[in-house]
Amino acid sequence: MQALNIEGRDISRVFLIDDDPSVRELYEYHLDDLRVDTEEIFHISGMDQLLNASNDHDGFVCDFHLNNSRYSPINGDVIVSSLYKKNIPAVLCSRDVDTISSVRRLRHSIPCIIEARNLNGESVMDAFATCIREFSGNFSSIRRPWPTLIRIENIVQESPTILRVAVVVPGWESQSIIEVDISKDEVGFCSEIVKSIKGGDVYRCKAQVNLDAESQTDIYIKDWISI
Questions:
Q1: Residue (of 114, 80, 109) closest to 95 by Cα position
Q2: Residue 182's pLDDT band (boundaries 50, 70, 90)?
Q3: Among the three residues 135, 164, 195, which one is the final residue of a domain in this structure?
Q4: Residue at which a domain ends, from 88, 113, 135
């Protein structure tokens, strides 16, 4: 096997994460033309396991829905986002486009989501290249964040830890409704949002958004600020 030089970094091994063994084998088949070592992850105890097992010459392909709790206590969006924050390139593989709303809270640290049918050596290399460029602060225009106004129109769902809201980002598209999850631990004014919406009003705040995103699939919203 060989190492791939991607944006100046040698990648010699790709870890494969999915709770279905047959899907992990499919990942391996699709990546065969890369001529790098692949290694299946048979069980995940937590992020420390993955971080301790990997280094700067590794990459990850990770499914989103890790529904088998005996396989992993965390889903793929958390895994890929955590790896990205440690400068380890990773791509989220999703068989379900509807996952985008639930992933959007972490989308700023998940540069690439590949549908299963589009997973191949070239698409994974391109995703790893995007990650590595962003590690050095080189963001494409569609990924670069800008401060902007957010208008929260409705509460879609509420749990003890997450508030899923429907928002409009006038600076991106004034007629589009975007669903996004807000962590109550990370955003301290969730109670104000709930009070305003239940009172029949919209709630206005600010956040960082990649305003040059070409589609709603690519939009992320982070660093919420009350005004």
A1: 114
A2: very high
A3: 135
A4: 135
